[in-house]
Specification:
alpha+beta, outer membrane lipoprotein receptor (LolB), chain A, 12-stranded mixed beta sheet, 3 helices, 16% helix, 45% strand
Length: 216
């Protein structure tokens, strides 16, 4: 679940960015990337995830899907699914056929997509442009982001923004142990036609599922 949240909350963070003091060129690019995300009525992203150790050696890769509509979301990755309708979160483990139900807690100090979507991170990062790099026909702008809160379990986030489309990919997150989490957008559909029911766990589609209800 940590992997899924990391990718999804990064997308929400991008969508919630506003103009802040600091590197003006970075601010302009992030504003445009933010506007791009916000322009989508419903968003579905196919992505790949790779973990590298401190020496840059791959520790495995996975593929997943992230779907969003406002503060509602669904993430599917390697046998696990997380549904959120804005009030309730269902975390479903396919291997055990078990779903854990929790409430969205706006007062929690835990970083959540809801908080990121409501500009929770507006003042929590310093950012700057490191330069540009060519990747095939694309020109990517590298933006380095450093959290102001040094107690976070990561110390750097690198966003690579397509200079032409302002789509962000890849995203690299560096934790304090030197590990690198790399997320690459494989496809993006900004008009996915998602219904509100898409973000609610349907028990009838999972016969015999065991429920762990922590909302009561």
């Amino acid at each position: 679940m940590k992997v899924m949240y990391s990718f999804l909350t990064t997308l929400f963070f991008i969508s919630s960015l506003k103009a802040q003091s600091g590197d003006q060129s970075a601010k302009q690019i992030l504003d445009k990337a933010s506007a791009k995300i916000k322009s989508y009525k419903s968003l579905q992203v196919q992505f790949s995830y790779q973990l590298q150790d401190a020496q840059g050696t791959s520790q495995g890769s996975k593929k997943g899907t992230a779907s969003m509509k406002g503060i509602k979301y669904l993430v599917q990755l390697s046998g696990q699914e997380i549904y959120c309708d804005g009030k309730t979160i269902w975390t479903y483990d396919k291997s055990s056929n078990e779903v854990t139900i929790t409430k969205v807690d706006p007062s929690s100090t835990t970083i959540s997509p809801q908080k990121l979507f409501t500009n929770f991170y507006d003042k929590d990062f310093l950012y700057k442009v490191n330069g540009e790099q060519k990747t095939g026909p694309k020109t990517l702008v590298e933006i380095e982001m450093t959290p102001n809160d040094k107690t976070q379990n990561f110390h750097k986030v690198y966003l690579y923004v397509d200079k032409k489309t302002y789509i962000v990919s890849p995203i690299k997150v560096l934790d304090k142990n030197g590990n690198r989490y790399i997320y690459t957008v494989m496809s993006l559909n900004g008009n996915a036609g998602l219904t509100d029911a898409s973000f609610i766990f349907d028990k009838s589609r999972h016969p015999g599922v065991e429920e762990i209800n922590l909302t009561q």
